[in-house]
Design brief:
The chain is α/β, with parallel strands linked by helices. The chain has a domain of about 180 residues: Rossmann fold. It has 7 helices and 10 strands. The longest helix is centred in the first third of the chain and has 20 residues. The radius of gyration is 23 Å and the shape is globular. The chain starts with a helix and ends in a 5-residue tail after the last strand. The relative contact order is 0.10.
Length: about 260
């Protein structure tokens, strides 16, 4: 649904409640009968066509081995533009900085696993990681109580995490102000001169999209990082990554490379 239609529906509270119920139910109601019929007919046509062609020597072909993949014939490679842009951005900076070790807090496990292949990485999350790969260490923990002493970690990432803290979406306790508490904890453990790669939703106003996430203005989120300076910032609007924050564009994602200020003697 485009943003203009959403704004119209928001003015009709009952309609918006109905749309909210639909959003919550959508992951549980994925079966689309007409689309399935169309894709199944295409699958059968492909099967008959393939059988008529010369068989591949040494391969068994039988309908009992069907594994119908009905949703993969798309016009473009399916991906989430936010995670694509932010993960490429973050991995590129870590690769350039080449820290001796890296700590990630709550980011997507696939991204962390890739980063761990060129720098030894410890992943912190409240949900255990069920797989193991060389170079990646998992430690169960909360972003609100990180298992590190003050000023002890020189390279940290936390991508699209802080906006969720305290909303209960991932099983964490309900806590107003959870984002701000998480930011304080990130700054606490970061060593002076240390680097933090950080991303959150941004918007024209500070908003709570309960229970999905919060969104912040650029000014507000940077005001929370009072111990850090900005080395680089990028913004994702729709499918595009741009250099500047634009409140008129509405909802987007901000990418921030932050460095903790040195402590004056």
């Amino acid at each position: 649904m485009n943003s203009g239609v959403k704004e119209i529906i928001k003015n009709w509270r009952i309609a918006w409640w109905g749309y909210s119920i639909y959003l919550g139910a959508r992951p549980f109601l994925q079966f689309r009968l007409l689309a399935w019929i169309r894709h199944w007919i295409r699958f059968q046509q492909d099967w008959r066509h393939y059988k008529k062609m010369s068989p591949e020597p040494g391969f068994q072909l039988d309908s009992k081995d069907w594994i119908p993949c009905l949703n993969d014939r798309t016009s473009h490679t399916p991906l989430d533009p936010v995670y694509f842009h932010q993960d490429v951005w973050a991995a590129g900076i870590i690769f350039r900085l080449q820290p001796k070790t890296h700590i990630d807090i709550g980011s997507a496990a696939t991204t962390v696993g890739i980063i761990s292949q060129f720098v030894p990485t410890t992943m912190i999350d409240i949900r255990p990681l069920p797989l193991q790969v060389p170079g990646l260490t998992f430690q169960e923990g909360s972003i609100l109580a990180l298992p590190f002493s003050d000023n002890s970690v020189s390279s940290v990432s936390s991508l699209c995490v802080v906006e969720h803290i305290g909303l209960g979406r991932y099983g964490d306790p309900i806590q107003p102000g959870g984002s701000e508490a998480a930011i304080k904890e990130l700054q606490r453990v970061l060593t002076p001169g240390g680097n933090l790669l950080f991303s959150v939703p941004i918007d024209a106003y500070n908003r709570i999209y309960f229970n999905a996430h919060r969104a912040f203005t650029r000014e507000y989120i940077l005001s929370q990082f009072d111990q850090c300076e900005v080395c680089e910032e990028k913004y994702i609007y729709g499918k595009n990554r741009v250099d500047n924050y634009n409140p008129q564009m509405g909802f987007g994602t901000g990418l921030f490379w932050l460095r903790k200020k040195q402590i004056n003697p």
